Amino acid sequence: MKHMTLAGLVVTGLALLAALTPLTSRADVAPPAPRLGTPITYQNLTIFPLHGNATSSTTPLTLQEAMERKLIRVHETGDVNSLKVENLGDKDIFIQAGDIVKGGKQDRVLSLDMVLAPKSGRIDIAAFCVEHGRWSGRGGEKTDAFGSSNNALPAKLRASTVAKAGEPPRAPGAPQQKVWAGVQEMQRKLADNVGQSVNAKPSPTSMQLTLENDKLKSNVAAYEKAFADILSKTPDAVGFVAVINGKISSAELYNSTALFQRMWPKLLNAAAVEAISEQDKKPVTPIANDTVTAFLDQLGKAPATTQKLSPNTSLRTQETDRGIASDTVLSDGAVIHRSYLAK
User: Fold this and answer.
1) What's the gap between Cα 27 and its chain centre?
2) Phi then psi for 286, rounded to 5 degrees?
3) Is 56:254 a contact under the CB 8 Å cutoff?
């Protein structure tokens, strides 16, 4: 095949993916191939905007927006690794893997992307607990449902919740233990780097309550300020790559600028939290654009597997020894979101 430029792949890759009906498991299907923008660095976090062609003119509500407007209900099931979600409104709702829901019997992280159709009824969704030990009400929170979703799990922790290519989307047992251990380790690192405990008295094991810690939020705010104008400088961006301590952590790519812009505050917050947890005194070596491009391209060439998640959402996964890429594919073959997680 004749070598194509990244700019060319942006158009052809997205168009090809949108035309896949039904999805195939072919490894030679080109994934979205975005163009890297000019990186911005603050302390140990570097953000590369991703530029590409938006393929959708409509934008679903995010989970956070829907919960704030009471247009979605996230039901407690009594199963640590499974919840039910229900769209009560008349517009699609986009749930992204890594979204944390607060409340219920334990705070959870939703481990899969999903697009909920209007008036969906109750749909099962895989989840992991990010709060070890509590199994009752906390304060005035409801135990049968969840009240908010204002934060996302940092990519380093989210990687432990992602099923490997070819495996069922949710594997019980050991992965949950890995998530709890990862939360505990991140809490320890955050405490070391902000200079005080970040564990909350009402529930010391809760990752969500850790993210609400005032000292941590103050540190995160400095990162958020440094990247505050990134959207205005790159209005056509459809995603980003996060690099921490000179190493790729994750990348997110969407089919519309509007969806990326709506997700960006939560994603930036998660990247900043991870960067703070990984801070050290070693100098950071800048990463080359070619290294980032090679990472994205390599994952896009790996063999793919496809799994049905809901009536209108499928998951297409590709994996190498360097990371996992996953596409959230709608029933018409359109890819609404592509995620890259480094190992």
Assistant:
1) 23
2) -60, 145
3) no
d(CA 163, CA 273): 23
Pairing mode, strands 35-36 and 121-129:
unpaired
Give 164's pLDDT tier (boundaries 50, 70, 90).
low
Distance CA 46, CA 36 (A): 13
pLDDT tens sequence across 31-53: 446 889 999 999 999 999 999 87
3-state secondary structure of 79: strand
Instruction: Give 322's DSSP letter.
Output: S
What average pLDDT score do residues 119-130 get?
Answer: 94
Phi-psi region of 70 (alpha: psi -120 to 50; beta: other; left: phi over 0): left
CA distance linking residue 168 with residue 228, whole number of Å: 38
What's CA 36's distance to the chain center, in Å? 19
3-state secondary structure of 174: helix
User: How many of the other CB atoms lie within 10 Å of CB of 240?
Assistant: 29
> Residue-wise over 139-162: b if at least 16 C-beta within 10 A, else e?
eebeeebbebbbbbbbbbbbbbbb
Q: Are 324 and 44 in contact (CB under 8 A)?
A: no
Residue 8 has φ and ψ, to the nearest 5°, of -70, -40
CB count, 10 Å around CB of 235? 8
Can you tell me the distance from the alpha carbon of 270 to that of 178, in angstroms, rounded to the nearest whole number?
19
